[in-house]
């Protein structure tokens, strides 16, 4: 049999799906002709189909050495690179395929798709437009174009294109799944899940649809349901990077870090240039910590992982900056900030890393800016946040937007995401309001820079990951961060950390990489609560009817560092008729972990676990009622309550606090000092226990203190001096950077 006939026989077996037989023939051909490019490439296809990706990569690469401009083979090799998570290599191979055969629509669509995955949707558009001139009605082209439009902020066009694909291919599961993706990105979760469910009805083992549904459930903060969905996807395709990634991140979000982190670590080891995985692995942190020793271990682990990321980012920055910048949007080291004590060193390294990535991805926005001289004009000040609604951040910092004098300032507000409500509508008054929720990172940066701002204020860096890269760039001559999330950013682009004089300690400067600016009092004009007081939670009513004294700790459970457990136990030991009431976390595993910690401390003192009660999550009105009816409110140590202290005082409840060194451990201290309620401030943990026990045991003392709270509780609210000082600071800084003509 001739060589051509043998090859034809192998192709026939391959086309018939008899891969073992085809593989034997290809190997027989290569035994006598090692440079047979057809046999090499097709053997590579079989290896890829069998999951032997390393072998497939070697075989395909060798075939392309022999025929470097074979468009179909370049396309196949690009698909393999994409399957392996090596998106930059996939991009290069698809570009070569499109160059070798300009009319290869498959290569053009694949190139657009991989650019989309690399978060460079703008670069994808011309390739897809070229494909559209060749095959305008192809459903896979329509749906890919729809995904590009979604990423570039054209939500209506995105939906129309994806629905067009569904109309042309109603039995094609991918079309329904991609429509679901677009709807999910628009926050239309019920519609998104329905579209993905339709995909699954057509193809029950459609892994991408399962992943999409898992991500819907992540967005709805249903991590356990997300875990089940990703596990189902992995039963179909155990090597799915997206499903493994979704499973790992969902386990972490559910508080099951011990299960989730190994998934992400293994993925990171297999795909060291998958920056989404690398970033998620860095940020795979416990939500709560079992002990001080675990906190120390987690800080070391974070530092070590950060060092590995610093090294690898630097090595690949020239080629992978866009993918790295996209990965930064996936999360912040939020939970390392709640470990108590100073985190400046870690945060400075983290901020410096983001700064390197941002400057490489967007070099045109990395240099210092100058604006024309002021010449008596109003200054243009920008704000950006995802929490521009009835949210804790807007309760504190909304006044910076609403109360800046409009005769001196033009105010531009970028609403990055999040729902709108009555508070949003109030904040819009007198502003240039920009809905940026559908803009990708690149478009958002360009939009902010295009507003010719004199100053850009980021109230809450550290809460929302999508502000990290823009804030690490220079988008206005003057840039500053507030205490919406009171942790230093580590960004060299921040001209100031605008903090509270009442809350900062004497050595507050050492906690920041930014110059510290102490605005008067609380740094904000906090509004009196406007929510109607709701109903006292049923469990609190039961405790009160049983004659129990309610000591309410209203803080999120991740604020409760382990050293506070014994403090709570000592208080309950000293006040035998008291019950500690806390609020559950959204993840049951987190609540269980804190309960286990506290019960251990109670039992060590001979106390029973019924001395603590966890309430379900409360609506705002019911939260106010709980504060009103608590006998005593206990503040947290490592991260003190700001909003919660203000709202407790508004309800007339006494709050006991013990300030730490950092501003985030001194919120209640500043509020109580401003209210003239120094008697509720303890100097150390022993004093905190003693004060809470005295108030718990002495009803007359407790009533006298409550009366003083009710007499003085209005003092910290609505302080206009802070906003006036904020306005003056902006003018001084802008004048310094851009003196009048």
SS content category: alpha/beta
Mean of residue pLDDT?
94
CATH topology of the domain at 368-527 and 720-737: Rossmann fold
Profile the largest sheet.
7 strands, parallel
The share of residues in helices is 55-70%
Strand content: 5-15%
Silhouette = globular
By CATH reckoning, the class of the domain at 368-527 and 720-737 would read Alpha Beta
User: Termini, distance in Å?
Assistant: 90 Å
Work out the number of β strands.
Answer: 12
What gyration radius follows from the Cα positions, in whole Å?
29 Å
Q: Which architecture of the domain at 368-527 and 720-737 would the CATH scheme give at its second level?
A: 3-Layer(aba) Sandwich
| Helical stretch tally | 32
Unreliable sequence segments = none
Give, in spatial order, the strands making up the sheet with the most strands: 3-2-1-4-5-6-7
């Amino acid at each position: 049999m001739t060589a051509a006939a043998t090859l034809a026989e192998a192709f026939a077996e391959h086309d018939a799906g008899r891969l073992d037989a085809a593989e034997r023939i290809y190997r027989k051909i290569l035994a006598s002709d090692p440079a047979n490019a057809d046999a090499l490439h097709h053997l590579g296809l079989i290896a890829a189909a069998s999951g032997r990706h390393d072998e497939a990569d070697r075989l395909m690469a060798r075939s392309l050495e022999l025929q470097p401009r074979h468009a179909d083979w370049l396309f196949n090799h690009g698909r393999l690179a994409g399957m392996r998570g090596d998106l930059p290599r996939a991009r290069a191979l698809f570009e070569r395929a499109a160059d070798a055969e300009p009319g290869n629509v498959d290569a053009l669509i694949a190139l657009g798709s991989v650019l989309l995955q690399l978060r460079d949707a703008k670069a994808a558009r011309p390739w897809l437009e070229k494909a559209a001139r060749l095959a305008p009605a192809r459903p896979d082209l329509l749906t890919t174009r729809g995904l590009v439009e979604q990423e570039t902020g054209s939500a209506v066009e995105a939906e129309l294109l994806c629905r067009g694909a569904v109309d042309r291919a109603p039995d094609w599961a991918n079309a329904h799944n991609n429509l679901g993706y677009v709807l999910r990105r628009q926050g239309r979760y019920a519609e998104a899940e329905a579209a993905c469910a339709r995909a699954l009805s057509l193809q029950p083992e459609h892994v991408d649809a399962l992943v999409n549904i898992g991500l819907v459930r992540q967005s709805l903060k249903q991590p356990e349901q997300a875990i089940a969905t990703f596990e189902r996807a992995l039963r179909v395709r155990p090597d799915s990077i997206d499903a493994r990634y979704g499973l790992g991140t969902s386990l972490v979000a559910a508080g099951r870090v011990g299960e989730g982190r190994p998934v992400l670590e293994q993925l990171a080891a297999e795909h060291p240039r998958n920056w989404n995985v690398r970033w998620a692995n860095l940020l795979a942190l416990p939500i709560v910590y079992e002990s001080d020793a675990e906190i120390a271990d987690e800080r070391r682990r974070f530092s070590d992982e950060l060092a590995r990321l610093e090294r690898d980012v630097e090595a690949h920055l020239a080629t992978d900056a866009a993918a790295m910048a996209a990965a930064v949007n996936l999360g912040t080291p939020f939970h390392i900030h709640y470990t108590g004590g100073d985190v400046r060193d870690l945060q400075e390294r983290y901020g410096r890393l983001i700064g390197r990535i941002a400057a490489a991805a967007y070099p045109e926005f990395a240099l210092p800016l100058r604006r024309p001289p002021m010449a008596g004009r109003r200054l243009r000040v920008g704000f950006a946040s995802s929490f521009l609604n009835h949210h804790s951040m807007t309760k504190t910092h909304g006044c910076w937007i609403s109360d800046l004098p409009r005769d001196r300032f033009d105010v531009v507000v970028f609403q990055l995401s999040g729902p709108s409500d009555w508070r949003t509508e109030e904040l819009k008054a007198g502003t240039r309001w920009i809905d940026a929720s559908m803009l990708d990172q690149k478009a958002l940066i360009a939009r902010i820079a295009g507003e010719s701002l004199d100053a850009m204020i980021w109230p809450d860096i550290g809460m929302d990951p999508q502000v990290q890269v823009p804030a690490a760039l220079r988008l206005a001559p003057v840039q500053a961060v507030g205490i919406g999330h009171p942790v230093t950013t580590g960004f060299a682009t921040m001209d100031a950390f605008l903090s509270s004089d009442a809350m900062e300690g004497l050595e507050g400067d050492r906690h920041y990489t930014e110059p510290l600016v102490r605005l008067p009092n609380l740094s904000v004009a906090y509004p009196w609560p406007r929510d109607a007081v709701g109903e006292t939670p049923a469990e609190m009513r039961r405790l009160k009817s049983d004659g129990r004294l309610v000591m309410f700790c209203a803080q999120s459970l991740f604020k409760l560092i382990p050293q506070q457990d014994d403090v709570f136990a000592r208080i309950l030991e000293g006040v035998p008729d008291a019950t500690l009431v806390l609020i559950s976390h959204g993840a049951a595993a987190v609540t269980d972990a804190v309960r286990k910690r506290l019960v251990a401390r109670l039992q060590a003192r001979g106390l029973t676990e019924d001395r603590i009660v966890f309430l379900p999550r409360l609506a705002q009105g019911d939260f106010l009622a709980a504060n009103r009816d608590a006998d005593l409110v206990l503040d947290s140590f490592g991260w003190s309550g700001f909003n919660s202290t203000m709202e407790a005082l508004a309800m007339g409840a006494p709050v006991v606090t013990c300030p730490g060194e950092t501003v985030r451990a001194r919120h209640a201290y500043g509020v109580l000092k401003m209210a003239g309620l120094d008697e509720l401030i303890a100097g150390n943990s022993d004093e905190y226990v003693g004060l809470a026990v005295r108030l718990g045991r002495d009803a007359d003392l407790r009533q006298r203190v409550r009366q003083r709270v009710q007499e003085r509780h209005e003092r910290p609210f609505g302080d206009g001096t802070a906003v006036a000082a904020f306005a003056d600071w902006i003018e001084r800084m802008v004048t310094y950077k851009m003196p009048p003509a």
